[in-house]
Design a protein that fits this description.
The structure holds two protein chains of two kinds. By secondary structure, chain A is an all-alpha fold. Chain A is built from 18 helices and no strands. In chain B, helix 4 crosses helix 7. Chain B is flat and about 85 Å long. Classes of the chains: A mainly alpha, B mainly alpha. At the A-B interface, helix 9, helix 10, helix 16 and helix 18 of A face helix 1, helix 5, helix 6, helix 10 and helix 11 of B.
Chain lengths: 380, 306
């Protein structure tokens, strides 16, 4: 057969069908990784982030499961057991207290009568109060000046702080990303006006306004709670907490809005948006189904860093006497209460302080790791 | 340049105006008013007090009067103080204490931050660098007031080296200043380190080295000039941080400054004082940000101010 150099003559006899084994070799070995799997793989390699994650899980367990183990309640005042030192059981304390009046009687021989009678009175209360199950359970972190168990209060405080951090970040996430996405997507004059508003809010020294807002909101919120029993039952949160959420919703979304807007400005020029629009998707669908899911990396990272900063603001407010009100405890208000007796009972200040530091550190560690895993471009 | 100045000043004034308006209406939105909580006062006295402080007029008119007074620099009378002090007087009494502490803290933060940052950059990837990075990561993660409490517990209560109530002797400044300065120092250290690492790799540094200049001269005259720029931008936020920090630091260390007083005026519901202090502090922050922005343009001629 003469070969024509200009046509593609292929001799079928040169080929044979591949056997199954050979076919297998051609299939690409590595399964394609989804975005999340890939991110998780990268996160797992980062020891700091994993330590942070483990810490967060432990802290969550401590805050939410802990109160079921300890047999005390956060607002339970056990009289005669004020300012116990760590690891004392009520029974031990009762023994000591019984011993005290005798010593006192001996040393204050010329003390007034009512003094001695008073101290015997307290001993009576002491011996009555501890029930059997409680008598053996130590106050691991001692009790406060009103005889409340510090460990349980610390657990509730952490619960409040974690709740504030997470809920506030979700509020910020929703408002900020919606605002930013609309601003970036619509563009033009709308974008300009919307971003001016953001800039204005950005320039306001936020803590001052937060303080003002929490004063202003506290009164109407407590009235709202007092009036409708349903309200307090549904939410299960105090007026202080609710006004804090409103504050976050009003002020702290601007950072998130800026980041999402920047992302959307890049994304909206890409072909898949054009394709979606060509298929008849309206603006809402484009924004919520196409644009926002595509900037999920930066959104998650920003939210992750928002949690510790929200926790910081909450504990800051509670520390200066705003925010959560008694008998509920927050880490900040626990620290505030402990400031008075810091000379005598330093551990009462150390407990919430270390707890806040741990929580914020843990979220920062995980946040750093997530930033590297989800969005390598943001890495410095 | 002139255009930039005008634009920047105008936007600062706009921000300040928004704050004043928001503060005013927020304060007046509180139900009850300042006298409602005091049950000893009779209706007649409350009426008379409201007339005295102009609280019986329509709110828009009150707003106008307040703005008018503000333009003249009058922040009104404090309600809670028994001697009838003006807000201006209280601020002029309390602010210097805070300003001294804040100024010291800014100074310490700059010195400490620059030193740590330079040292880390020059010992890049060595132990000192790792140590500085570790400390600064910790310092950024742990909030300032927690740091203050821990310092107080360690040096005040456990070791008893320093007193921690009031500002009566020079050594009393150590703990509060360090508390305020620690976070910004860590932040500055990181800024300087990354900027210096960037700058030290550039050609003009190699040229300077090739000329045989001594290392310190290269560092200070050539490298630092460029590496310091991010720190200048950070000065504005730094000031705002020190200001907010003063609320808790003054509370922790019982320092009779404006921050502590502000927090106390919140609990006593002294509205004119709360408003006056808020506006004063906000104006301070906004003004300092403006100054920093303008300085920035002069320091780095490459930046075109628009």
């Amino acid at each position: 057969m003469a070969r024509n150099p200009f046509t593609l003559h292929i001799d079928p006899s040169m080929f044979e069908p591949a056997n199954p084994e050979e076919k297998k070799g051609l299939i690409i070995q590595r399964h394609s990784l989804s975005f999340w799997k890939d991110a998780w793989r990268r996160l797992k390699k980062n020891p700091t982030a994993m330590v942070g994650l483990a810490l967060i899980i432990i802290l969550l367990l401590f805050a939410f499961a802990g109160p079921f183990i300890v047999p005390y309640k956060y607002d339970e005042q056990i009289r005669g057991f004020e300012n116990l030192s760590p690891m004392q059981t009520p029974r031990e304390r009762a023994d000591i207290k019984e011993a005290i009046p005798k010593v006192k009687n001996r040393s204050d021989e010329f003390a007034y009568d009512f003094k001695t009678s008073k101290s015997t009175e307290t001993t009576e209360q002491v011996t009555e109060t501890p029930e059997n199950k409680e008598a053996d359970f130590p106050h691991v972190l001692g009790t406060d000046s009103l005889g409340r168990d510090n460990l349980v209060r610390l657990m509730y405080g952490s619960r409040i702080s974690l709740t504030v951090g997470i809920v506030a970040s979700i509020i910020i996430l929703i408002i900020g990303s919606t605002y930013g996405a609309f601003s970036g997507f619509i563009g033009g004059r709308t974008d300009n006006v919307m971003m001016r508003i953001v800039e204005l809010l950005y320039a306001i020294p936020d803590i001052l306004i937060v303080i003002l807002l929490s004063i202003v909101l506290k009164e109407p919120m407590s009235q709202l709670f007092a009036r409708s029993a349903v309200m307090s039952r549904i939410t299960g949160i105090g007026p202080g907490l609710l006004s804090m959420f409103i504050t976050f919703a009003l002020l702290y979304w601007v950072g998130m809005a800026r980041i999402v807007r920047g992302q959307v400005l890049q994304l909206k020029e890409q072909e898949f948006i054009l394709a979606a629009q060509a298929l008849g998707a309206n603006n809402n669908r484009v924004i919520f189904r196409h644009l926002i899911p595509n900037c999920v990396g930066p959104i998650i990272v920003t939210t992750m860093f928002q949690i510790p900063s929200a926790i910081f603001v909450e504990s800051f407010l509670s520390f200066i006497g705003l925010g959560i009100s008694a008998p509920m405890a927050s880490l900040g208000s626990l620290a505030n209460d402990a400031m008075g007796g810091v000379q005598t009972y330093p551990y009462m200040l150390a407990e919430p302080a270390i707890m806040i530091a741990l929580i914020i550190l843990a979220f920062n560690m995980l946040g750093d790791g997530l930033r590297d895993a989800l969005d390598p471009r943001m890495k410095k | 340049m002139a255009g930039f100045l005008v634009k920047r000043v105008l936007s600062s004034i706009a921000t300040l105006f928004v704050i004043i308006t928001a503060t005013f209406f927020l304060m007046h939105a509180v139900p009850g008013g300042p006298f409602a909580t005091n049950e000893k006062l009779g209706q007649g006295i409350i009426k008379a007090m409201e007339v005295k402080y102009g609280l019986n007029k329509p709110i828009i008119q009150q707003y106008g009067i307040y703005l008018g007074n503000l333009v003249r620099g009058d922040l009104g009378m404090s309600i809670a103080s028994k001697e009838g002090k003006t807000v201006n007087y209280i601020i002029s009494q309390k602010f210097p204490v805070s300003a001294r502490l804040g100024g010291l803290a800014v100074l310490l933060a700059l010195i400490l931050g620059l030193f740590m940052g330079c040292y880390a950059a020059l010992r890049h990837e060595k132990f000192a660098d790792r140590l500085v990075m570790f400390i600064s990561t910790l310092g950024i993660a742990v909030p300032g007031f927690i740091m203050g409490m821990l310092l107080l517990l360690l040096f005040g209560v456990a070791l008893r080296w320093l007193k921690f109530i009031g500002l009566n002797s020079p050594s009393d400044y150590i703990l509060p200043t360090f508390t305020l300065a620690f976070y910004p120092a860590c932040f500055i250290a990181r800024l300087i380190r990354s900027a210096l690492l960037d700058v030290l790799g550039q050609d003009y540094i190699r040229t300077a080295r090739a000329k045989g200049l001594p290392a310190y001269s290269i560092l200070i005259k050539h490298a630092m000039r460029n590496a310091i720029l991010p720190v200048v931008t950070y000065l504005g936020p730094l000031l705002a941080y020190v200001l907010v920090g003063s609320f808790v630091v003054e509370r922790i260390f019982s320092i009779p400054g404006l921050g502590l007083f502000f927090v106390q005026s919140i609990t006593s519901r002294d509205y004119p004082l709360i408003m006056g202090t808020t506006i004063f502090l906000a104006a301070l922050v906004i003004f300092m940000n403006l100054v920093v922005d303008i300085i920035y343009g002069f320091i780095d001629p490459r930046i075109k101010l628009r």
